[in-house]
Design a protein that fits this description.
Elements: H1 3-12, H2 25-34, E1 40-46, H3 55-62, H4 64-77, E2 81-87, H5 89-103, E3 108-112, H6 122-129, E4 153-157, H7 158-168, E5 175-182, E6 188-193, H8 198-204, E7 215-220, E8 226-229, E9 242-247, H9 253-267, H10 273-287, H11 293-306, H12 310-314, H13 316-325
Parallel strand pairs: 1-2, 1-4, 2-3, 5-9
Antiparallel strand pairs: 5-6, 7-8, 7-9
Helix pairs in contact: 1-2, 4-7, 9-10, 10-11
Bound molecules: iron/sulfur cluster.
Iron/sulfur cluster (SF4) binds at residues 118, 136, 268-272, 275-276, 307-309, 311-312.
């Protein structure tokens, strides 16, 4: 397959990044290819740090050859490139021997993540590999133009590289990996068609029948995913493919909000005041027995509008949807 063909095939398959943002993969590869530089980098991001997403670990356990082959295809497509496979610490420990065998002599370096949730954000990931403090960088310039050591850098999620291999070997069936968790009989990671609704996914995984009592669901990007009601099961799942089911009698909205707020308190990097202070205030606000809704809305507005990176902005998604639909 020629280099041009690879990018055309990715475009034709309408492959979009599986890390959460859903940017068109072929377009990203084309951008990195077009910038002229003596050195370019490819990073495969396998640092999923959200408690309700486990697809990268599943893919590493079952399809390491496909992932490495996807990275090799990128190395062939992007001139003067070498690659990093950036892994969550436990995945690194568990799969390094197997991965090194599959990598062989290819210029792919395994990199053990230092950090957690935020280190998967692409500019934070760049800072981490460069050995700097774990904080996001100002964008623009974006990584395809100036990433690792200011060189054009292609960053894709581990699942995306798996899909690249499937496309190149004519095995791509327009599927994606969903992580199902919460109050379900059959939680787990499933590879299913990308256009299936939440209802169909729950049906085909034998989970729908177990949901007789009232429930609501968080879909998309794990902790920062949107809440949907049981009447919205015709929705498709975007983001990182997480589906978390909450039975209403088991989960009080206030407890859920406290859990999210604590999670974001523990995972924000502290670089910018709106997120650092805003999430601190959010935690304080949720400690009380009665929520000041106006103050909460104001806090969420400021977080969304003024946070430096996607983490601070995305905090608002679960809170707003829960408050509007369930609370
Ligand atoms: S939004 Fe939060 S995570 Fe992002 S830079 Fe600001 S403090 Fe750090």
């Amino acid at each position: 397959m020629s280099k041009k063909n690879t990018i055309d095939q990715l475009k034709q398959a309408d492959l979009r990044g599986r890390g959460g943002a859903g940017f068109p993969t072929g377009l990203k590869w084309e951008m990195v290819k077009q910038f002229s530089a003596k050195k370019k980098y490819i990073v495969c991001n396998g640092s999923e740090g959200d408690p309700s997403i486990a697809k990268d670990g599943f893919i590493l356990a079952h399809y390491p050859e496909q992932v490495i082959n996807g990275i090799k295809i990128a190395l062939q497509t992007i001139d003067h490139s070498s690659a990093y496979l950036y892994l969550r610490t436990d995945y690194y420990q568990k799969y390094k021997t197997k991965l090194k065998k599959v990598i062989g002599r290819s210029p792919i370096t395994l990199f053990k993540e230092i950090g957690g949730y935020l280190s998967g954000e692409e500019t934070t990931l760049i800072e981490t590999i460069e050995g700097n403090r774990q904080e996001p960088r100002m964008r623009p310039p974006y990584p395809p133009q100036s990433g690792l050591w200011n060189c054009p850098t292609l960053i894709n999620n581990l699942e995306t590289f798996y899909c690249v291999n499937q496309i190149a070997t004519q095995q791509y069936q327009r599927t994606r990996f969903y992580t199902l968790s919460g109050d379900l009989l059959n939680p787990g990671v499933y590879e299913l068609p990308i256009n299936w609704s939440v209802k169909r996914i729950l049906q085909e995984t034998n989970n729908l029948l177990s949901l007789r009592s009232k429930f609501f669901i968080q879909i998309g990007s794990g902790v920062s995913g949107e809440i949907i009601k049981s009447t919205e099961l015709n929705r498709q799942v975007n983001g990182s493919g997480a589906i978390v089911v909450y039975k209403t009698k088991k989960h009080k909205p206030i407890s859920l909000m406290r859990y999210w707020a604590k999670f974001f308190l523990d995972t924000n990097c502290g670089k910018c005041a709106p997120c650092r202070e805003g999430i601190y205030r959010l935690n304080k606000l949720l400690c009380g027995n009665r929520i000041n809704r106006r103050l909460l809305d104001d806090l969420l507005f400021v977080l969304e509008q003024t946070s430096f990176c996607p983490l601070g902005k995305s905090v608002t998604v679960p809170f707003r949807s829960l408050l509007d639909k369930i609370y």
